[in-house]
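Example record

One chain of 288 residues, shown exactly as stored in the release files.
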Amino acid sequence: MRNLEELPHPQSSKFMPQKIDGKKIAERIKNELKNKISKISKKHRIGLAAILVGDNHASKIYLQLKEKAAKEVGIHFQKYIFTENTSQEEILHLVQNLNKNSKIHGIIVQLPLPKKFSTQKIIHAIDPKKDADGFLPKNNYVKPVLVEVVLEIFHEAKENLDQKTILVIGNSKEFLQSMKKYLKPLVKKIQTINYQSWIPQYWSQKKIDDVIIAVGVPHFFQPYYIKDNAGIIDIGITEKNKKILGDVNPMCYKTARFYTPVPGGVGPITVAKLLENVYKLFIASTEK
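Predicted structure tokens for this chain:
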């Protein structure tokens, strides 16, 4: 394996990486959403309930961003904040009540939950008709938010997906399965792998056109893992030494066809797509 210093630093005009401006895309989505919501009768206010458990600093920031964006587009945001000492039964009881609340059209649980809680049990307690994150397999109303984000980025990058071989690296089975389920019909070939099984030498053939990565390990993905002129979607985000870092070493950007920076790439689009899902769930609830 070569050292980074040995890698070429292309300066030729053929390397013109497209930086995906997540903030700009998110603003467009939110403006479109705000326009749609403004046409809904005030008697039918859209409601989003958010549950936060514990004292995770990053989770608090994410929740604040979602609340701010919800208010911008006209979605009522109701948050429920619990300490880590709260019992799981209390959280489940709240979810059950929100499932029955006709004024709530979307429910989210801010992850990660403290270790003592069963994430799967709490998430699966949500009514699929109100599953704004799109986590549940029985949710036939919206796609998982991250799938929607990836599709939006591919659209922005003008990717011809039916000609692309895509690699997805993740840290959870659910993430990998959802990406494979929704992308497989659209692409030439898709490979999914848990980052703990990642063997860089195996991929030295560099047959991958695009990589999607969400592992939560700063700069896990290195330039020599993928061919030049590839697309990079970096979903991972970690705070280290008061800096926000992605899963991809920024040196990868130099030879990329397109890439999502961290911060300012996937994050803003994720919030916008979440709110779009809430709107879709509201519309579905009125079409009964």
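Notes: The mean pLDDT is 91.
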